[in-house]
Amino acid sequence: MSDLKQWKSLTLSVRKTLDGLPSSDEREETVRAINELVKFLSDLSSAFGAMPTVEEAARAKEALASLESIINRNPMLRRGPNGKTAKPRAGNDSKPISANGSFSEEVIMQTIADLSVMPEIAMRSELEDAKRYSNSFLKAILTHLGKRAPSKGVKSEMIDQLVATLVNRRTLEGISGRRRL
User: Which residues of the chain have pLDDT under 50?
Assistant: First the structure.
């Protein structure tokens, strides 16, 4: 009798299984959905494989630093591709000066702080703006930095001296660990 129960149980299980089987449309839809999932995961895997690594990013940063160094050394490349100097920032178009032409220490220090965070090319472009940086203002900045302004007061010489001084200070501060470059 127990054999008979087992057979009935087995046939009942098989019937339930057969009744639970999907139709051909349901099976095709399930297979299609699984294939879409596999394709999505394959695309995701490809995208992740194409993502740059930390090592590649470091090499790109080195290449950018090298390019910037080349641009900084070559006066022909200091200008943009269109031959004009780019204006790196918008803002206050005039520096406050007193009636007698002297500049406040606060204005000079703020200008030095603003220029010190700019890349060399942007700093040079900013200083070439005749409206914002007159010769007397450039002389005042150089004097504040402890540098002697050129006797003839040629603006390009003062800009070169100022840019070199600020870049050298930034480099020294970066090396000594006082400030990140």
Answer: 86-100, 180-181
Q: What is the DSSP string of 6-60?
A: HHHHHHHHHHHHHHHSPPHHHHHHHHHHHHHHHHHHHHHHHHHHHSPPHHHHHHH
**CA angle (17, 20, 26) in 5-degree steps:** 135
- Other C-beta atoms closer than 10 Å to the C-beta of 163 total 19
Nearest Cα residue to 163 out of 136, 179, 142 = 142
| Cβ neighbours, 10 Å, residue 162 | 23
Tokens standing for 6?
A: 């087992």
Mind listing the pLDDT tens digit for each residue in 6-17? 888 999 999 998
CB burial of residue 160 (10 Å; 0-12, 13-18, 19+): middle
What whole-number distance in Å separates Cα of residue 64 and Cα of residue 43?
31
